[in-house]
Amino acid sequence: MSLLELRNISMDFGGLRAIDSLSLSIDEGQILGLIGPNGAGKSTAFNCVAGVYKPTSGEIWFDGADITGAQPWDLCRAGLARTFQIVKPFASKTVLYNVMVGAFARTDRTDEAEAIALDVLKSLHLDRKKDFKSGALTIADRKRLEIARAMATKPKLLLLDEVMAGLRPTEVDEMIDVFRTVRDSGVTIFVIEHIMRAIMALSDELVVIQFGRKISEGKPEAVAKDENVIKAYLGDEYVAS
Amino acid sequence: MTPQSFKKTGLALLVLTALALPLILRSPTYLHILIMLYLYAYMTTTWNLVGGFAGVLPLGHSVFVGIGAYTSTVLWLQWGISPWIGMLVGGCLAGFVGYLIGKPTLKMRGAYFALATMAFVEGVRVIVENVDKLGPFKLNGPRGLNIPPLPAGESSFLAFQFSTKEPYYYIILFMLMGVAYLTWRLSRSKLGYSLSAGGEEPEAAEALGVNVAKCKVTAMVLSAFLTALAGTFLAQMTLFIYPKSVLTLDLSFELAFIALIGGRGSLAGPIIGALMLRPVTEFSRIYLSATLPGMHLILLGVILIVVMLYQPRGLSEPLTRLMSRLQDRICSTKTGGAQ
Predict the structure, then answer these.
(1) Is residue A235 predicted with pLDDT exceeding 80?
(2) CATH code of the domain occupying A2-79+156-238
(3) Tell me: the pLDDT tens digits for B284-329?
(4) Partner A contacted by B317 (CB < 8 A)
C-alpha cells in the first residue's frame, strides 16, 4: 500500500505553472528520489507535500487521509516530518534543546522528551555534541541535527530537501549511512537531491521531472539510461541513436 | 560543594535577604523604592513571557496594568467587592483582552505586533479619558479614581490597605517569587520549548509540530492575566489611579526597556534590569522632574543604546558568565581542599 500519493497535483504561481498534473506514490519502507534539472519544480512539489503551499488543483493522500492544504504542524503530528534545504537550527540553543522541540510533538512531559531526544542523538552519533550550541556546529553536523530533529517527531515519512548539498564526499558517504539507518528503523523516505552519486546509491525508485512534468520513473539504473532523462540533463546531441 | 548546591545556596541567601530587608531597612521611603523595584521586576517578568520567550515585542502592556487597576477599583468603590477578588476578575478580563489583541496580530511577523499593541493602549487611554461612565461603571474620565483611605493607623487585609509599608513589601515580594517560579517552570515545559523555538525559527518550529501562533496567543493570555494583578497592587499602593498613571506608553516602554537592557528571554534578565534601572528612574524623578520631566526615559534610551552596542543580549548574559566562573572557582577549591 502506498504511504504517500500525489494525485494530479498542479501548482500555479500567477501565470507560471510550476507543477503540471504530477502524480507519484511512495510505498511504505521505500526510499523514493525526486530529481530533475534546476527549476524543474522539485522544491515546489516538496513544499506542496510539506504544507507550505496549497496546490492549485489535485489531491495529496498520506496514510489513508487527504492532507491537501493541511498545516505543517498537523502534518508533523500525523507522522510527516521534513528537513529544510537551508538548515534552520534554533541557533542560540543547544543540540539537545533543538531535538527536544521535535520530541515534544509526541509527548507533553519534559523528561520523556529528553529521553526520546537522547535516543535519537545516539542513533545518529550526535550524542557527544548534545550540549553544544547548535549555531556553533559544522555544516555537516547541522544537517545531521536537522535530521535528528525530524526523527525525534517519530515520523512515518521523512521528507529530505537536498540534505547533501554542501557536504564533502566523505560526509556524503556518512550521510548515506545515516539514511540507511533511518530506513531500516521503518521510516519511509522521500528525497530531493542534486548529488547523483548519493541519490543513485540510495533510492529504490526514482522520479524525474522537468518543467513541472514527470518525464521518467523507475529503478535508478533504468532511469539513468532513459532517453528523455539524458535529453533533459545533457541536451539532444548526447542521446545515443 | 557541587554546582547544584552552589546555585541552591545562592538562591536561598537571596530569598532570605529579601525577606529580612524590612527588619533592617526601617525607612518607609527606602521600602517604597524597593516595593516599586519589585513591582517593576514583576511586571517585566510577566512581560517577558511574551516579549522574551515568544520573540515578539509587546509595547502596550500598560493596558493590562490599567485593566487590573480599574477593574478592582471600580468593583471596590461601587459594590464593596474586596480588591483581592477584583484582582482576579481584572486578571481574567485582561487575559480576554490579551486574547483579542493577540489572536489577529501574533500571526504577523516583524513590527506589526509592536505597533498594534501601542495603538491599542493609546486607544484605550483616549476612551477612558473621555468617558465618565462606561455602562454602569464610573470611570471618572481624566480625573481618575480615588480610593478613600481607611482611618489613619488602620489596616485591613480584605480591603487591601495597610498603614505600614511592610505588608505591601511582602505581598509584592511573594508575587514576584511566584511569577519567577512560574517562568522557571514554563521555560522547562513543552510550551516554553515551543515558544522559544517559534520565536527563533518559526518555519522550522512549525515543521516540528509546533502551532506557533497558538503558542504565542497562549503566552499572551497568561502574560496579560499576570500583568493585570500588578495593576491592582499598584492601585492599592497609591490609592489613586488616573489614565495617565496606569494606561500610558511611558509605562509600556519602561517595561520593554528594563527587559531589553536586563536580557529578554532569560529568567534573571527582568530582575537584574529592574534592579539597575529603577534607581535611575527614581532618582531622575526626585532630582530632575522639576527641570527635566520625562528625563528618565531619555536616560533609559541612552543606557539601552550603550547596552545594545556592547551586550546585545542584555546584561544578564555577562553576569551569568561571571556567576558560573565564580561557581567553578568556589566548587573546584572546595573539592580541592577535600582531597
Answers:
(1) no
(2) 3.40.50.300
(3) 888 887 777 778 888 888 888 998 888 888 888 888 888 888 888 8
(4) no
Distance between CA atoms of B63 and B251, rounded to whole angstroms? Answer: 9
Residue B208 has its nearest CB partner, among A91, A108, A149, at A149
- Helix (H) / strand (E) element for A159: namely strand A157-161
ipTM: 0.86
Q: Where are the domains of chain A?
A: 2-79+156-238, 90-154
Give how far B276 is from chain A: nearest CA, Å. 25
Tens of pLDDT, residues B185-218: 999 999 999 999 988 888 899 999 999 999 999 9
Q: Which residues of A touch B210 (CB under 8 A)?
A: 73, 101, 104-105
Cell numbers at residue A32, please? 523514493
Which residue on chain B is closest to A149 by alpha carbon?
A: B208
- Contact: A100, B205; criterion CB under 8 Å: no
- Measured CA to CA in angstroms, residue A70 lies from A49, A51, A62, B73, B173 at distances of 9, 6, 11, 47, 47
- Which runs of consecutive H residues, i.e. helices, occur in B80-211? 83-105, 112-130, 166-187, 190-200, 202-207
CA distances from A148 to A74, A130, B225 (A): 19, 11, 37
Q: How far is CA A39 from CA A7, A8, A49, A83, A159, in A?
A: 21, 19, 18, 20, 19
Q: Is the pTM of this model over 0.95?
A: no
Tens of pLDDT, residues A142-157: 988 999 999 999 999 9
Report how many domains make up chain B: 1
Structural domain of B83: 3-338
The beta-carbon neighbor of A76 closest among B193, B203, B207 is B207
The answer to whether B316 faces chain A, any CB pair under 8 Å, is no
